[in-house]
TrEMBL record:
Its EC number is 2.3.1.-. It holds the Pfam family ACP_syn_III_C. Keywords: Acyltransferase, Membrane, Transferase, Transmembrane, Transmembrane helix. This is 3-ketoacyl-CoA synthase. GO terms for biological process: fatty acid biosynthetic process. Residues 369-449 form the Beta-ketoacyl-[acyl-carrier-protein] synthase III C-terminal domain. It comes from Leersia perrieri. The chain crosses the membrane at residues 40-59. Pathway: Lipid metabolism; fatty acid biosynthesis. Residues 61-347 form the FAE domain.
């Protein structure tokens, strides 16, 4: 361990060590340095200074503007929306004309093995029998979760509706007319010139897709521009009433939630600095394209079909994403080990070696202190943990978010960030890796660096953080 630590220090600080060595060599003979400087003609010195200033100014002008997370807020559901397992089972038994006994048993087994707890919440529409799938029910849920999240982010920030220059709202399935973006503009009376975008159909990855879009806009916008991002998934109109098991999964895993964040290209009031953003789309593969697919079953019931290979598909997409993301964030010591490993495998193959030669798996804990993995399900978290070689502590925020709030789709990574801050684990300078997956199939990675930790834990975990983490039952294999 000591040898590995020394290796990382030397490799990661090679340039600094080399510069220090050169400086020491030069300063050992200061009179020689002074003599050389005096021998330079004044005109040459002036030209060099002007050129250096010009290059520095050109570099600053061409450098992309930094983007910051000013604040974020999450919808905190009222306990009256709770959907414990017993209630789900009772409601299913009271709807025999919609769901058969075998489907009920399957759903209960799934819930028991899913990693969800008894405090997850569903909208009012799910508490009716049969569920209320009307447009009004969906609008009511939309206004509840979106406005609560936006109210929270404004309450926690020094900015208000008048300071918002751009608006991005994402929701995958439910897309009414007027769209959610117009709903937010109307509610908060945003300025007439506000630019707004409404994203749909991107599934659970849309929240980080929105961050990437906001980054691109802010890097070319005037200084002081602010973007409000709202991420949610509306469940009321999407309750599946058939018996296809692959289409029953969303009923069991998805829960109500929403998150809002304000991004800016001004460091004033910033809490996090946005780092690298990498998006990978694997829709060219037919199996990936149909992995999360909205369609009708044989009886004509519309729902979302989740492939049994969802966790495996997520793992493959993550590998592709890491290939692009890793070199941008990993320290030189880890990249060098990967390069040596790749070279070793090539040499063995050229030498006629027929066995499988495994590449070195980089340690991403050298690049990040915290990980926010989309709480899409127990199997998805397991796949990412195993693929990245993370510890149980590294994925605690993801598992506890799944247990307390369920799969809240594109907003889940912000609930996880809130968990880390509520636990008091976020420190200035800490780096965070957010990972999300979505229909398409998409994998998104976003890096953050903490500028200022939260002053308090007044977020979605305020009433329950003292009870977490909880012990989850051991399950050999996710459903």
């Amino acid at each position: 361990m000591l040898l590995k630590a020394m290796y990382r220090v030397v490799v990661n600080n090679f340039l600094a060590l080399a510069a220090a060595a050169v400086a020491v060599a030069v300063l050992r003979r200061p009179e020689e340095l002074v003599a050389r400087l005096r021998s330079v003609p004044p005109a040459h010195a002036v030209i060099a200074a002007v050129l250096a200033a010009g290059v520095a100014r050109l570099w600053r002008a061409r450098r992309a503007r930094e983007v910051y997370l000013v604040e974020y807020g999450c919808f905190r559901p009222n306990p009256r929306y709770r959907a414990p397992f017993a209630t789900c089972k009772e409601h299913a038994h009271l709807m025999p004309y919609l769901v058969d006994e075998e489907s009920v048993a399957f759903g209960i087994r799934l819930l028991e093995r899913s990693g969800l707890g008894d405090e997850t919440c569903v909208p009012d529409a799910y508490h009716y029998m049969p569920p209320d799938k009307s447009m009004k029910a969906s609008r009511d849920e939309t206004e509840l979760v979106i406005f609560s999240a936006v109210d929270d982010v404004f309450a926690r920030s020094a900015l208000g509706p008048a300071d918002i220059d751009m608006l991005i709202v994402n929701c995958s399935i439910f897309t009414p007319t007027p769209v959610f973006a117009d709903m937010v503009v109307n509610k908060y009376k945003l300025r007439a010139e506000v630019q707004n975008v409404n994203l749909s159909g991107m599934g659970c990855s849309a929240g980080l897709v929105s961050v990437g879009l906001a980054k691109n806009l802010l890097q070319v916008a005037p200084p002081g521009t602010n973007v409000l991002i709202v991420s949610t998934e509306i469940l009321s109109s999407q309750y599946y009433v058939g018996t296809e098991r692959a289409m029953l999964l969303p009923n069991c895993l998805f829960r109500m939630g929403a998150a809002a964040m304000i991004l800016s290209n001004s460091p004033q009031h910033a809490r996090f600095r946005l780092g690298r953003v990498v998006r990978t789309v694997t829709a060219a593969r037919d199996s990936d394209y149909r992995c999360v697919f909205q369609e009708e079953d044989e009886q004509g019931n519309t729902g979302i079909r989740l492939s049994k290979d969802l966790a495996t598909t997520a793992g493959h997409a993550l590998k592709t994403n890491i290939a692009a993301f890793g070199p941008l964030v990993l320290p030189a010591s880890e990249q060098l080990l990967v390069a040596f490993s790749f070279l070793k495998r090539k040499l063995k193959l050229l030498g006629g070696h027929t066995g499988k030669v495994r590449l070195y798996r980089p340690d991403f804990r050298t690049a990040f202190e915290h990980f926010c993995i989309h709480a899409g399900g127990r199997g998805v978290i397991d796949e990412v943990q195993q693929g990245l070689g993370l510890s149980d502590d590294d994925v605690e925020a993801s598992r506890m978010t799944l247990h307390r709030f369920g799969n809240t789709s594109s907003s889940s990574v912000l609930y996880e960030l809130a968990y880390i801050e509520a636990k008091g684990r976020m420190k200035k300078g800490d780096r965070v890796w957010m990972i999300s997956f979505g229909a398409g199939f998409d994998c998104n990675s976003v890096a953050w660096e903490c500028v200022k930790p939260a002053a308090d834990a007044d977020g979605p975990w305020i009433n329950c953080i003292h009870r977490y983490p909880v012990e989850l039952p051991e399950i050999a294999k996710d459903v």
